[in-house]
Structure formats: structure tokens, C-alpha cells
Specification:
Blueprint: E1 32-38, E2 41-51, H1 54-73, H2 76-92, H3 94-105, H4 109-129, E3 136-139, E4 145-153, E5 156-160, H5 168-179, E6 183-187, H6 193-206, E7 213-215, H7 220-232, E8 238-242, H8 245-257, E9 263-265, E10 270-274, H9 280-292, E11 302-308, H10 312-325, E12 328-329, H11 343-356, E13 361-362, E14 396-397, E15 409-412, H12 419-422, E16 429-435, H13 438-446, E17 453-457, H14 461-470, E18 475-478, H15 509-512, E19 513-521
Bound molecules: 2-aminohexanedioic acid (UN1).
The site of 2-aminohexanedioic acid has 11 residues, from loops.
Length: 536
């Protein structure tokens, strides 16, 4: 069986969901077992995950191919009903699914519930698309001839997803891919495999047939080898990937060799401009939510606040106060953010912190590094030179020594040459810099070369519109956070953020279908385009 082999029952979703997950019967290749742990309680294993090798991925693609014809033959409105049932099942199991998200990747309860809502919204949109999935009628330049276009499924999609949105982002691929009549190989993040298993169980319970979605947890090396083989064997028609820019380049190159254009949704270093006329309290709230929500681990997280020099001091003071007052910690509670996703993400974040040490002026109450110490809640001990360091934090709930918790960081005075200004950090850090005029702010916003999300706080319509036009981001928010895109608006970026593909809403249909045209002549003679076309 292709699928996440998980010891025991990793989720407590309701009785309608149960039994073995979907996926075709194939012999798995050599595997390794890894533990997916709760990042807030590292000693607790959420699931034992059996990783597939390259052969497992190839086998899953072949299984998806065998299931493709039958699924594509199901009328689109019926496929839409299956998506509708999936959405209802997700809604019926929303709390349990959100709890699993919290447990497996440490996302705070409210945000996890929001993530589940994003699946429901996506299903609501695509259910109806099953009754639309429109093609066009196009006038011909010749008489007695009709032209049409049709959307056709691509065949087999390989979907590779990260664990920061372990259920919502996969649904952005799985739901439209299935609706359009494709079958899927899904490689989730290993440390979010129990969430993936729960999603597959819900899809199966909703009526997605065996073999239509094949779940294969695998490590990075096995994934790229398996994908390479599957592409070479003609077993995969399209790849969808959400994750780092670095891995996106590898996947883009692999697909390019086979003349495929993947859907790539990569990193971001998302700017927020705070204009002199901005509502500063609102801008600070957006910086807190956008920079520190999900512990800064959204691709849309705020990277750098670019603040007009006239309001810079006031902005930093208020941001610092808001962040210092925030409660962080155990994600089952009401916290701003919980632990980092997984040990590898913590290690990556530590690398950024190492580069930051000694290079930046950190704002007054900001501490640096992992939160430790059994007595969280006591004051922060100062480090050398008065700089606060690792240690307990006021406003912490839970056991700091059991989880991957990090202090929130505000780094004031970042410059364009700084690593922190240019690179995505995927952790709870916000950089702050200043600008003098809007052109400079736009230039700073574009400098890192990403192009995913962006924001401006201003009361001036002309500044907002100028920023919208000048910023090279796929998503622009005026007086709102860089995070929190709605599920039916085009989502994606260019530059280091992706290859220009857009997810969500009708735009996603272009990632899961191919256009076919039909020219139908009923003149009874050969009509030659251009040659027989009479243009007066
Ligand atoms: C991601 O981090 O990959 O706009 C997706 C947002 C979310 C999705 C983020 N709705 O922040």
C-alpha cells in the first residue's frame, strides 16, 4: 500500500473517518521509519512515519496513472459533489483536525482552526467549479465553422508540500487537481505526515476512489530521485511544490529537463511600508500578526518593516511594547505563537541567529535565541553588554524546556547588505529599516528579489496606488497584514518567490488543466485558414 504507514491511530477524527487510507496496492521499496514529534513536547511522538524510497514514488505515480482514466471519466459536477462532501467532512471534523495540526506542527489552536477553515473555503469554491469548468466558444474567421475551447485534466500531478500549513496548502492543490479530473501523488513533509494521513482519510471517506490520491512521505533525496524517475518514465504530468526557494530551484530544473513547468510557491521576504500618515497602532498590530503569527513561519510572513524616518522611533517603541506584552508558548493555549515546526527548522533559524549576533542593535526588551528555563515567567537575565539572551521570558505559558520555543526578535536598523534584510528566516524575527521618500521605500521593498506578498500602511490613496504599481509582489495589501490571503484570490509570486504560477480560485485551474481547442467545420469543403479567409 502506498501511503503514510503510521503506527496506531494518529488522529481522533470522528467515526465516519476510519479504516486504511486510500492509495493503490503496490509493493513499497526500501523504507526508513522516522518519528513525527510534537514540537511543543519533543518527547511525545505523534506518529511513526515510514518513508518511501525513489521506487515508492515511482510506484505511486504508476498507481495514480492507472486510476487516472476512470476518475477523469467521472462527470465534473459529480467530482464537484465529492469535493463538497470532503468540505463537509472537514467541517464536521474541524476541531479534531485543528487539534492534530496543533499537536503535530505546534500551530496555536486559533490559527490551526483558521487553517482548517481555509480547506472548507477552498472546497466551497471548487465544488461549484465542477458545474462550471467553463470552456469558450470562439468566432471563426471562416463561415460554417465553429471554434471551441475545453479544459482537460493533465493526468497525474505530483504535489510536494511543506508542514507550516500541513492541511490548508495541500488542499489548494488536491482539491482543484481532483476536481479537474487528475490523480495525485502527494509527498507531504515527514514531520506533518499524521496531518496528511488525516486528510487522505477524509478524502477517502468523501468518495475519492482508491488510487486517486497516493500519499508517500519521503525525504528530500528520495523525493528528487523518485521524481526524476517518474518524469523520465512519463508517469507525472505536472508538479506542484510549496516550500523553500532552494528546493524550488531543484524541482524547477528537474521539470524543465522534461519540458514541464511546475507550479512553484516558494519563499518570501515580505515588506511592510509604514508611511508618515499611517495609523501606527494598526500598523503595529499588522506587524505583530504578520511577523510573529505562526512563529514567522508563513511564506507570507512579514520580513522587514520599512518605516518612514519621521515615525520610526514611535513605531519601534510601540512594536517593542506589543511584542514584549505578548504571550507565547504552549500552542494549545491562547498564544501569539508556539514552537518552531520541527528540529530542522529550529536548526535553520539558529543559523540566522548566529549571523545576527554581534551584527545588530537589538531593541531594548528583545532577547535572542531559544527560550529555556523551568521558571518561565520570571524576568530576562541580561547578557554581556546588557544584551538580553536566552532564558526564560515573561509572558510564556507551558514548559519551555520541552519545546522548540524562540524569543521574538525585533532587529532595528537592518541595512540592504544584511543577511537579515535579504534572506527569508522562517522564524519570529522582524527587521526594521527607514526610508525618506516612497520611491526609496519601493526600491527597498523590491531589493531582496523575492516577490510574494507586501503591505503598505498609509492614509493616502496616491501612495497606496503608487506602491501597488511599483512593488514586485504577487500580493499587495493596503492597511493590512502581509499574511492571511483569502482562499479565492490569486496566490503566488515571481522572482525568488516562484515562477509566476498562481494558486487559488479560478487562477488555479490553469495549473491543473490543459487547454484544448476544437475547430469544427460544417461547410462541406476544405476551408484553409488565412488562405481562404477574405478580409475586406
Ligand atoms: C504559506 O505559508 O505557504 O496568506 C501559505 C496566508 C495563508 C497561506 C500561507 N493563508 O498567510
Amino acid at each position: 500500500r502506498v501511503g503514510a504507514r503510521i503506527a496506531g491511530r494518529a488522529h481522533d477524527l470522528c467515526a465516519t473517518v476510519g479504516g486504511p487510507a486510500g492509495g493503490a496496492e503496490v509493493e513499497p521499496a526500501a523504507v526508513r521509519v522516522v518519528a513525527s514529534t510534537d514540537p511543543a513536547r519533543l518527547d511525545e511522538v505523534v506518529a511513526e512515519v515510514e518513508l518511501g524510497g525513489p521506487e515508492t514514488i515511482l510506484a505511486a505515480a504508476v498507481a495514480a496513472r492507472s486510476a487516472a482514466r476512470e476518475w477523469a471519466a467521472v462527470p465534473a459536477p459529480v467530482r464537484g459533489s465529492v469535493i463538497g462532501s470532503f468540505g463537509r467532512l472537514v467541517a464536521d471534523n474541524a476541531d479534531a483536525l485543528a487539534r492534530l495540526v496543533t499537536r503535530e506542527v505546534g500551530k496555536p489552536a486559533a490559527e490551526a482552526r483558521g487553517e482548517v477553515q481555509e480547506i472548507i473555503d477552498t472546497c466551497e469554491f471548487f465544488r461549484g467549479e465542477g458545474r462550471r469548468l467553463y470552456g469558450q466558444t470562439v468566432p471563426s474567421e471562416m463561415p460554417d465553422r465553429e471554434l471551441f475551447t475545453f479544459r482537460e485534466p493533465l493526468g497525474v500531478m505530483m504535489v510536494i508540500t511543506a508542514g507550516n500549513f500541513p492541511v490548508a496548502v495541500p488542499s489548494w492543490y488536491l482539491v482543484p487537481a481532483l476536481l479537474a479530473g487528475n490523480t495525485v501523488v502527494w509527498k507531504p513533509a515527514e514531520y506533518a505526515a499524521a496531518c496528511a494521513q488525516a486528510m487522505l482519510d477524509l478524502l477517502t471517506a468523501a468518495g475519492v476512489p482508491a488510487g486517486a490520491v497516493n500519499l508517500v512521505p519521503a525525504d528530500g533525496r528520495a523525493t528528487s530521485l523518485g521524481l526524476e524517475r517518474a518524469l523520465a518514465a512519463g508517469a507525472v504530468d505536472k508538479v506542484g511544490f510549496t516550500g523553500s526557494t532552494e528546493v524550488g530551484r531543484v524541482i524547477g530544473a528537474l521539470c524543465g529537463r522534461h519540458l514541464q513547468s511546475p507550479c512553484l510557491e516558494l519563499g518570501g521576504k515580505n515588506p511592510m511600508v509604514v508611511a508618515p500618515d499611517a495609523d501606527l497602532d494598526a500598523a503595529v498590530s499588522a506587524a505583530v500578526f504578520g511577523g510573529f503569527g505562526t512563529a514567522g513561519q508563513r511564506c507570507t510572513s512579514l520580513g522587514t518593516a520599512i518605516v518612514h524616518e519621521s515615525v520610526h522611533a514611535a513605531f519601534v517603541r510601540r512594536l517593542d511594547a506589543a511584542v514584549s506584552a505578548a504571550v507565547i508558548g504552549d500552542p494549545t493555549g491562547d498564544v501569539l505563537y508556539g514552537p518552531l515546526l520541527d528540529a530542522r527548522f529550529a536548526a535553520g533559524f539558529e543559523r540566522h541567529l548566529t549571523l545576527l549576533r554581534d551584527h545588530h542593535r537589538l531593541s531594548g526588551s528583545t532577547a535572542l535565541g531559544r527560550i529555556t528555563g523551568a521558571t518561565a515567567g520570571s524576568a530576562q537575565p541580561p547578557g554581556p553588554g546588557g544584551l538580553p539572551r536566552n532564558g526564560p521570558r515573561r509572558g510564556f505559558v507551558g514548559d519551555p524546556d520541552r519545546g522548540l520555543y524562540y524569543h521574538p526578535l525585533i532587529v532595528d536598523g537592518v541595512r540592504p547588505d544584511d543577511e537579515l534584510f535579504r534572506e527569508e528566516t522562517f522564524g519570529p524575527i522582524v527587521g526594521v529599516t527607514t526610508y525618506r521618500d516612497l520611491d526609496e521605500a519601493i526600491e527597498l521593498a523590491n531589493l531582496p528579489g523575492y516577490g510574494l506578498s507586501s503591505s503598505i500602511y498609509t492614509a493616502d490613496a496616491a501612495s497606496a496606488l503608487r506602491f501597488r504599481r511599483g512593488v514586485r509582489a504577487g500580493m499587495v495589501s493596503v492597511n493590512g497584514s502581509t499574511t492571511g490571503a483569502e482562499a479565492h484570490l490569486p496566490f503566488g509570486g515571481n522572482g525568488r518567490s516562484g515562477n509566476g504560477s498562481r494558486q487559488s480560485g479560478v487562477w488555479m485551474l490553469d495549473q491543473v488543466t490543459r487547454w484544448q481547442s476544437l475547430s469544427w467545420d460544417y461547410s462541406g469543403r476544405l476551408q484553409r485558414a488565412q488562405l481562404d479567409t477574405v478580409v475586406p
